[in-house]
Structures are given as structure tokens and as C-alpha cells.
Write a structure and sequence with these properties.
16 helices
């Protein structure tokens, strides 16, 4: 077997390729060599992963484009200059590879079809160099990760920080009312903060569009729960939070997405957050409608019982709204405009 340095912890390698068989083969080979391979077939999702998570190296196809233009490799190097990138390419001529890379500094170039030893040697060299500096946080705590996500969502215009923290507070209150254990309540809080992390995998040109969008764009927007789960895959400390991230657009009647779960098939954490998110959305103004009063919002939630929302969770929220601790977080500021607020293309 190909030898490699003995690290106390398996190095994390992000593997990106839009060809499924090649992606799976590279990940398999790296795992055989002792690396922890995290995969993505979406360059936009992979770039968001790279910004939020600690990786020792990146292995990526040369020709991967981003949704907003440009090559993934170039943006990856600019986004996290301390993380070495190994480029894998089917281009036979070095001249063409050099022209595409331009001045982008990469660790190594591996040609397809590759040999496991060659790929492993390139990754080992990259990891050895990167670990000499030891400057990245590789195993962030769940709270540190959540703060990174909040920062990315704010900078990308997906959500404002105050809204995320209010949703977090209300979700904790409702989870406590539901009798969840402390560990589960903490995961609910993390899930509320990171619920729309998958929007980072949607091209910015789609996220920032105002007015009606095409069916292809809506397909990508509706994929954001799946993108979110992929972004946080294989991080045990936020496993419970991913239930909210992946399932917060499911509906009690089974007409939600991405899986069409119904009733108690939907994780309780996601059922709790869905009601909190709906309450927040209704009670705040957007550029497209005025805010509803708390009483009108409660009437609407009652109307949607057993269709959109878990009836018991709605009843629990109604009890919570009578508490001072809930109303202290009530906000009269307008919601930040979002593609998901478009009335003609409602996601629910």
C-alpha cells in the first residue's frame, strides 16, 4: 500500500468533480490511503464548504465551472489561499492546462486516468506542506461552525444576523416547551442558525434576482435543503441540526420538499422550526406585503394546522407567544428582501 505520514488525525480532503464515477473513485482511493474524503459534485456547494470548514487539501477537476462564471479552482485558491489545491485533469497537453490555470498557484497537477499512487503522492505532499503551518481550524466546535455559517449567510445576503438569532431563540423556547432534552435543544438552536446554509450552494445570480425566475432556477432554489445537508455532511457535532436544515420545507400533509415527508415522518426538530419560521415570516413586513399582527398570524397558523404544520407544535407556539420572553424578541424591522419572498413563486 502507498505509504504516507502518520498523523494523529486523518487529514480532511475536499474532493470535487462533476463526473459521478470519477468523484466516487477518487474518494474511494483517498480513503483507502487513509484520508477523510468529503465529496461534492457541485462546485458552488464545494466553494461554500471550503469557506466554512477546515480542509487540509482540495482535489478538484480543472474544468469545473461555477454558476456565476469562472473556474472553481481559481475561486478556491482565492477563497482559502492557505489550503493547497491538487488539480485533476483529462487535458493531455501541459500548455492548455497552463493557459487555463493562468497565474493560479496549485500544488500539483494529476492527469486522468490517474494512478492511485500518483494521486496519493500529490495529496500527501500538499497535506505535509499545509500542516507544517498548522494555521487552519480543522475540527471547529459546533458553535464555532454555526458562527461561521451566520457570517457567510450575512455576507452573501442570504439572511440578516438579527433574524437568525431571533429564530434561534424562539426555536429553543419551543423545543423546551416540547420537552426535548438539553442536547436536542442545543441542536435545534444550531439548526435554526444554519437552516438556510444550503442557499450558499445556489449561484449568487439566482439568489439576488428580483421578480419571477425560471423553472431551472427554482429547481436549484428548492435544492437548498439538500445542499445544506451536503455542506455539513460528516460533522457529528451538528448531526441533529441537519434535521432542520434538510427538512424545514417539508409539510405535515406530505406536499413539501425535498422528500415529501408527512406527519411524524418529519423530524420533530424540523416541525418545530417550520412553525417558528412561519410565525417570523408572517409577523414581519417584506417589500411585497405588510406585516401581520400576532393575532392574525396565530389565526393563519391555526388555519394551516394539519396541512402545513404539526397541530401540536402550533398549539405549543401559541402558548409560547403569551410569554414575555417570546415577545421580547418580537421585531418590527422589515425582513431583508429574499428570493424566497417572491409572491409569484412561493416555495411553500
Amino acid at each position: 500500500m502507498f505509504g504516507r505520514a502518520d498523523y494523529s488525525k486523518n487529514p480532511n480532503v475536499l474532493v470535487v468533480d462533476d463526473e459521478g464515477p470519477v468523484l466516487r473513485a477518487m474518494a474511494r482511493d483517498l480513503r483507502i490511503l487513509g484520508y477523510h474524503a468529503v465529496t461534492s459534485s457541485s462546485s458552488d456547494v464545494a466553494l461554500a464548504m471550503l469557506r466554512m470548514r477546515g480542509f487540509d487539501a482540495v482535489v478538484a477537476d480543472l474544468n469545473l465551472p461555477l454558476g456565476d462564471g469562472g473556474l472553481f479552482v481559481e475561486h478556491a485558491v482565492r477563497s482559502r489561499p492557505g489550503v493547497p489545491v491538487v488539480v485533476v485533469t483529462g487535458e493531455a497537453r501541459s500548455r492548455e492546462v497552463s493557459q487555463k490555470l493562468g497565474c493560479v498557484p496549485v500544488e500539483a497537477i494529476v492527469h486522468k486516468p490517474y494512478r492511485r499512487a500518483v494521486l496519493g503522492g500529490a495529496v500527501e505532499a500538499a497535506v505535509t506542506r499545509e500542516r507544517t503551518g498548522e494555521h487552519l481550524l480543522r475540527d471547529p466546535s459546533s458553535r464555532t461552525l454555526a458562527e461561521r455559517v451566520v457570517s457567510e449567510l450575512k455576507l452573501s445576503g442570504c439572511e440578516d444576523e438579527h433574524t437568525l438569532r431571533r429564530l434561534c431563540h424562539w426555536t429553543q423556547l419551543l423545543a423546551s416547551e416540547a420537552g426535548l432534552r438539553d442536547e436536542a435543544i442545543e441542536q435545534c438552536a444550531l439548526g435554526a442558525l444554519m437552516h438556510d446554509v444550503g442557499m450558499l450552494g445556489v449561484p449568487r445570480s439566482i439568489r439576488e434576482k428580483r421578480g419571477p425566475v425560471g423553472e431551472l432556477a427554482w429547481t436549484q432554489i428548492r435544492s437548498h435543503p439538500s445542499y445544506g445537508r451536503e455542506l455539513l455532511a460528516s460533522i457529528p457535532s451538528v448531526l441533529g441540526a441537519t434535521d432542520i436544515i434538510y427538512c424545514h420545507h417539508e409539510r405535515w400533509d406530505g406536499k413539501g420538499y425535498p422528500r415529501g415527508l408527512a406527519g411524524e415522518e418529519i423530524p420533530i426538530e424540523a416541525r418545530i422550526f417550520a412553525v417558528v419560521d412561519a410565525f417570523d415570516a408572517m409577523t414581519r413586513a417584506t417589500p411585497y406585503r405588510e406585516a401581520m399582527s400576532v393575532s392574525a398570524t396565530i389565526d393563519e397558523l391555526k388555519e394551516q394546522k394539519e396541512r402545513s404544520y404539526d397541530p401540536e407544535v402550533v398549539d405549543m407556539l401559541i402558548r409560547c407567544t403569551e410569554q414575555d420572553d417570546w415577545l421580547d424578541y418580537q421585531d418590527t424591522e422589515p425582513r431583508q428582501p429574499s428570493i424566497k419572498d417572491e409572491p409569484e413563486q412561493a416555495l411553500h
